[in-house]
Amino acid sequence: RSSWLLLAPLLTPPVPVITAPPCSLCPEGAHRFQWIRNLVPEFGISSSHVKVLSSPAEFYELLKVQIKAAKQRVVMASLYLGTGLLEQELVYCLEETLEKSLQAKGSPDLRVSILLDYTRGSRGRKNSRTMLIPLLQRFPEQVRVSLFHTPNLRGLLRLLIPERFNETIGLQHIKVYLFDDNVILSGANLSDLYFTNRQDRYVLLRDSPEIADFFTELVDAIGDVSLQLQQDDTVQMMEGMVHPYQGDKVAYCEIANRRVMEVINSARTRQELLHAKTFHSSQTGSSLLSQQGSQASGNLKPEPDTWIYPLIQMKPFGIQIDEMVTETLLTEAERDARVYLTTGYFNLTQAYMDLILGTRAEYRILLASPEVNGFFGAKGVAGAIPAAYVYIEHQFYSEVCYLQQQERVQLQEYSRAGWTFHAKGLWLYLAGSDLPCLTLIGSPNFGYRSVHRDLEAQVAIVTENKALQQQLHQEQEQLYLCSGVVSTSTFEQPNRYVKLWVKLVTPLIKNFF
GO cellular component annotations, sorted alphabetically (predicted)? Predict the structure, then answer.
């Protein structure tokens, strides 16, 4: 039975429909994933342009180096920018680079575009906005700060829900950091914890102009339907744009859908034309080679061995591409294939749980132990969130045991003294292979929020290159090395005790965190 029939309810008009089941398109090796390009642009690159980072400190240092080296553009999308010394240093790096651009001969070329979430970026008296206002005041022609406000937080709801709690309704959750033609994809925010002791994932795509153009256009599109931060700390919409919480919700969502899908579809068309041109050139090149020997070979670019697919999820706008691709990958994972899936917040959608429990592949799911959960030790109601995650984990584990799937589906808890855990993503090992040929990396957590409430983006990286596969394998091993296997005895430990009120409330609120 075609997996696309299973996913038919998710297909929306703006998304191109695939007419054949993906597993029958390209059955061999990494090429079996080429069906993804029926939904999104496919960017073929050399694996030598991909670098996997492993630590928060490495991520932070790379951000500073890339900002200082930027000449044309800096584009940063994040949930928020923190207010500590490390974040202030990033702002100083931006200021220094903008100053250098301003002093260069002629008009300054450098443009800085920052996209954050409105509610999270406005939290507290000192916040992301107050951190960035000096840049707007000093470089008004070069800097743009956009604050996305979910259209679902409006009216009486917006007036009644207090700060922090209003962030549960929906957020701008995409994390992309882009400098000229270099792109960093991650799940990490721009905050000191993510630069020091909060473990995440990070990948650098070097010298990738087409990918950088795509994410620049995507951030611009979301920025265009977001509130624009002004020099006096007020916000306003671009002229002629429907307001996200004062204007008509349906009209706003339709405009946002159109803007984002234009970016996806135009990039897809560009890449298809590029593929056709490259294919034609390679055919011409091979005939020339046969006639003229090696003379023509120097002019041909090396064949790509790695493919990047951007996967976008914006359910408020009716865009569900990441959900479709993730569900299809889980559906099509064959017997003896291994899927390593990690999330800092284990709260899988029912669809993802059903696929994991009902398919044939082996699963190794890495999640945060209570002590490394980002909410551990928080004040007030938030302090009970780790216990709620323990309850959700216990329910899932009980289901695994009931179905006698403990050998095939294994839970592992990340634990590391003095650290918190925020890594999310997936590594796919085909049957008989010791190395992964595909990874998903970006902002989604595979939970209800990621699928239904927030704006999310990740990339599928598919590679045939053994060295890059080895890099991805080492990244996976390094994360799982800090974990222990979950068993029945795990939930008998004193720190796993879940109060009755948490058990009662969790089913009611689990879709908000």
Answer: mitochondrion
Tokens 């780790």 found at: 386
**Catalytic residues, which ones?**
173, 175, 180
Question: What percent of the chain clears pLDDT 70, i.e. is strictly above it?
Answer: 89
**What percent of the chain stands above pLDDT 90?**
81
Cβ–Cβ < 8 Å for 101, 110: yes
Phi, psi dihedral angles at 415 (to 5 degrees): -145, 125
Q: Domain of 502?
A: 31-42+304-511
Lowest mean pLDDT among 126-140, 146-160, 210-224, 376-390: 376-390
Cα separation of 87 and 131, whole Å?
Answer: 9
Name the strand (E) or helix (H) holding 400: helix 385-402
| Mean pLDDT calculated for residue range 187-203 | 98
The amino acid at 286: S
Span 496-503, average pLDDT: 92
Q: How far, in Å, CA of 332 to CA of 430, rounded? A: 11
Beta-bridge mates of residue 112: 74, 143
Q: What is the 3-state secondary structure (H, E, C) of 89-153?
A: HHHHHHHHHHHHHHHCCCCCCCEEEEEEEHHHHCCCCCCHHHHHHHHHHHCCCCEEEEEECCCCC
Q: What is the mean pLDDT of the chain?
A: 90
The predicted structure's pLDDT at residue 511: 87
Which DSSP letter does residue 164 get? T
Same domain as 212, residue 81: yes
What whole-number distance in Å separates Cα of residue 108 and Cα of residue 103? 8
Question: Is position 285 within any domain?
Answer: no
Do 192 and 98 reside in the same domain of the chain? yes
3-state secondary structure of 54: coil
- State the CATH number of the domain containing residue 176: 3.30.870.10
> What is the value of pTM for the model shown?
0.91
Strands 143-148 and 111-117: parallel
Q: Do 412 and 366 reside in the same domain of the chain?
A: yes
pLDDT value of position 238: 97
Phi and psi of 139, rounded to 5°?
Answer: -130, 65
Q: Are 209 and 201 in contact (CB under 8 A)?
A: no
Q: Tell whether 182 and 234 lie within a shared domain.
A: yes
Q: What is the 3-state secondary structure (H, E, C) of 425-478?
A: EEEEECCCCCCCCEEEEECCCCEHHHHHHCEEEEEEEEECCHHHHHHHHHHHHH
